[in-house]
Amino acid sequence: MKKENTGMRQRILKIAILSVSILYWTEFLQAAEAVGNMQSTTMSVSGETVNFRMEGITVEAKRPDWESKLSPGTVTVIRPDDYKGEQKDLPDFLKMVPGVHVREINGKGQYTTVSVRGSTAAQVGVFVDGVLFNLGGDAAADISTIPVHNVERIEVYRGYIPARFGGTFMGGVINIVTKKPNRGNVTANVGRSSFGGKKANLQFDLPLGSGTLMVGINHDESKGNFKYKNFSYDRDKVYREEVEDAKSREQGAIDNYNKAFKELKEYGFVGSDGNIFKADTLEEATQIVKNNQDSWENSLQKAKNDIDNNFLVNLEDFPMFPGIEKENILPLLRSTHIDAEQALYDSIYKEYTVNQENTILPKWKDSSGNWVVPDRVEDFIEAYNEDNKTEYQHFQQILARCDGSFDNIERWIGSYGDSAAIGYAQQAEYSVKEMETHKKQAEAVKDHYRRRKANDYKNMDIILKWQDEHWMAKATWKRIKRHLPFPIDMNYGNTAYIDTDLMANNPLSIFYHRNQKLTVQEFLFGRRDTFKNLEWGWSVNYLKQEKDYYVDDWEWLEKNTGTLLNSYRPNSLWSKYDSHRWGAKLDGSYKAGERHIIEFMVNASKEKMDIDGWRMKDFSSHSSDTRARWRNYYEQEIFNAQLQDTITLNRKGDLWLTPSIRYNRSTILGRSERYDKKKDPQKWKFFSREDKQTDDKVTWQVAIKKQFNEHFTLRATGGTYYRLLNMYEIAGDGAGIIPMPNIKGDGSISHVFPMPEEGKQWDVSAIWDGAALGAKTAKLQLTYFGRDSKRILELGSWNRFFFVYTNAISAKVHGAEIQADLSWKKWDLNLQATYTRPRNVVYDNSALPEAIYWNGGVFKGFLTYQPKWEGTARITYRPNPRWSIFSQFRYVGEMITSRIPLATGDFMHQSSLTAWDLGIKCKLTEHFQIALGVNDLFNKANNMYHKYKRVNYQTNIQYPIQGRSYYASFQYKF
Questions:
Q1: Residue 552 scores a pLDDT above 90
Q2: pLDDT in tens, 136-194
Q3: Which residues pair with 927 in a beta bridge?
């Protein structure tokens, strides 16, 4: 035991020495990036956890050889260990699979979804060790939250889905299989990556009892503050305009300073010779003020006192503040406290404007002809902003704007106080600020780049897994903390100088300070056995997920935002979505004679989700009619029973038929626990405190496979599919999303719940597995596929305020996949490509009331964000067993982003992406390996844009993605 402890201490000491060495060596690498990468000032050093290669590993007991025939459809298997050191995450691996499209919706490391063969993201099932990852409270699986450091393989099923995966998924199934503990072993990795990234991974495999325990600890973080190209403007033209605007503002500041100097003479602001100051340049003007600071401030105060006195005198002719003492008027006007604004509102609006019928401020009447007079000043400000498309935060701003078009209350007071000196001085200071703004904007235009911010993330996960010949127990914990980047809004984000930096530095701009914290705990326990021709197993699982959204320093915002706070919707500052799911599964396979292999699976789960958020329960500052309707509790129960038979049709044993039948059922409940229908101010007949819906259906699929010889095989599959809906799609959220009303002819009202999506799909494949083109091993697969989808869900507007889910879309998709893996003595070539062609895409919104304004609501349109062509090519050269050099090419074609074309037939599309990666690996010793490389060598991701086909005008994509980045990875196995 003492000898074993000594050995462990030596391993830990080696890890510490290696970690310090790598961290010091990264400082040298950072200097290299400064020369080679215009977009980053730090060199990236990163890599995956050091993993030894394990053959034939599964998360279950070893299955009989004949089970290799249980997957008759198209399946691709990727082993992350084959790419260790290349910094690839799950989205990167899935991009290498034909038929799969990965959409990093919010950018790398952020919310990411996957579609298969033209499907929606919701139509793809994601499993981890055979347990469904998708939750009923999520629109689709966010694959960016699934770590791959301790993963043995990634299985991607397309078309035919084996019966062992519970559910029926129209797109496909992705199964992430974690490593099986193998033997006593310690592996470690530390590193740094581009754009402020850091990585650290540690894995132990230790004997424990009759089995082996694996412990994995992984950390990954990035600041994500990369540069990207700014489109949407003529750089030279806009730069000249900004420079001219800066010069104009500078001259305006000089003129206003000189006018202020002239007006302030009567208050003693003169030179030592008694003459008025005069400046020819802005530098001279600011120097005059600086050299005579005390005299400047004193003379301005005297002029201001004159303004205040004149203002109060003039008010005798304009008694617009009834009920307020004369000495309190100016302090109230200059205060931003809510009580001061309420006092002014009660006086000048309620009494002077409405009751005394003056027109200093705007008024509104309701349908009965009565004046609409909100009780609270916050509601008046919100109504004014909504009606005038403004964003005023204080009542005084509205007063100054409506009575004279002034930009602040001091200028409004000055207009009644009749002192030009103060106005000139204020205008001079304002012109200086505007001049500096235009100078900054000119530099931003000239640079032609923006820098992405609010894009950071910090992930940590731990896995404990014990396994022996029959039993398996797994526990995982992960925490993901990330800012949620704000999209480049079409209304202002495409101007030449607007950068996310400008708003990211404003603490009151909540949309640039939003965070998500995701904490997940998962437990899986099961056993597998073989008895004669029966292989079977059972498992139970539990998942707890806490999904928190919050704004940085939201408590401070609540205290300092003023009236702007009331423009925020409930849940804006924070919200919590807590989910619990329990599940159980029984599955197995039975060899019935020589010609039948029967696979069965039965599983069930129950998920509960509780929701809470900012002001969900507070009725004081927002209309109570929506607040009580918020759904705050959901349930979903799922039951699946599936049976599959692989039948050998001939004596030779080279022709198989595999039929499968599935029964799938889901019951969803959504409840608003604070809602009382009797107290609903709008007397909604079509909203209930609780909604519940059950959907179920039997579907089938079949595959036939013929092996002509040892190398050549043909295969065809087809079947029907049925996607069960999630919680929001059935019950809504009770506020912005409601179950669709069904207004009948007799005036009664009920609900029309959306139906689960359904469809058919088929594929035909030709497979070659043997020598080809001089390669010792070659596997070539060509697949032609088709799918016909009905009742695809879309979120549509019911009445411009509420939204409902409807089965609005139908579409057909045809396409082809090719995958080729060839290996020569020193060369490897891996190719995959996908062609996807959607057809007959129809949007039917005729069930919505507003369809009468849309020519009946039925349109021919497009499936969005589906590239027509997509593929990768990777070539690897191995001059000797220690060295390998590789290059990878990736192409993603143009994607249509408009659902429906314009009346002219034009539509918006996103540009294509062509990226080249280059890298080298060297195994310095038996245990130590280094990898160096560059991703997106030619920085093409920075050039991506949106544009209409017929208009020569480009805009930035909503969420820019990072371009060229370098990396270095160090891996050591103890």
A1: no
A2: 888 888 999 998 889 999 999 999 999 999 988 888 999 999 999 887 788 888 878 88
A3: none
Cα 971 from Cα 527, distance rounded (Å): 34
Query: 816 and 763 in contact (C-beta within 8 Å)?
Result: no
DSSP state of 661: E
Q: Please tell me the distance from the alpha carbon of residue 732 to that of residue 740, in angstroms, as a whole number.
A: 9
Joined tokens for residue 749: 């009202």
Residue 101: closest CA among 845, 748, 813: 813
Residue 251 tokens, joined? 């001259």
- How many residues in the chain? 974
Distance CA 492, CA 496 (A): 9
Using the Cα atoms of residue 137, residue 143, residue 145 and residue 146 in order, give the sign of their dihedral: positive
Q: Which residues contact 778 (CB under 8 A, 6 or more apart)?
A: 768, 769, 770, 771, 772, 820, 821, 822, 823
- Indicate the Cα dihedral angle 152, 154, 160, 165, nearest 10°: 60
Please write down the HEC assignment for all residues of 7-38: HHHHHHHHHHHHHHHHHHHHHHHHHHHHHHCC
What's the chain's average pLDDT? 83
Task: List, in sequence order, the alpha helices (H) in 178-271.
Answer: 235-263
Tell me the three state secondary structure of residue 582.
Answer: strand
Q: Which letter, b or e, does each residue of 699-730 get, where b requires 16 or more Cβ atoms within 10 Å of its Cβ?
A: bebbbbbebeeeeebebbbbbbbbbbbbbbbb
Half-sphere exposure of 230 (CA within 13 A, CB side): 25
Q: Which residues pair with 816 in a beta bridge?
A: 784, 835
Taking 50 as the threshold, does the pLDDT of residue 491 lie above it?
Answer: no
pLDDT > 90? residue 879:
yes
Encode 326-392 in three state secondary structure: HHHHHHHHCCCCHHHHHHHHHHHHHHHHHHCCCCCCCCCECCCCCECCCCCHHHHHHHHHHHHCCCC
Calpha distance 645→818 (Å, rounded): 28
Q: What is the pLDDT of residue 867?
A: 95
**Six-digit token pair at 893?**
């074609």
Strand partners, 206: 213
List of residues 6+ apart from 451 with CB closer than 8 A: 225, 226, 227, 228, 499, 500, 501
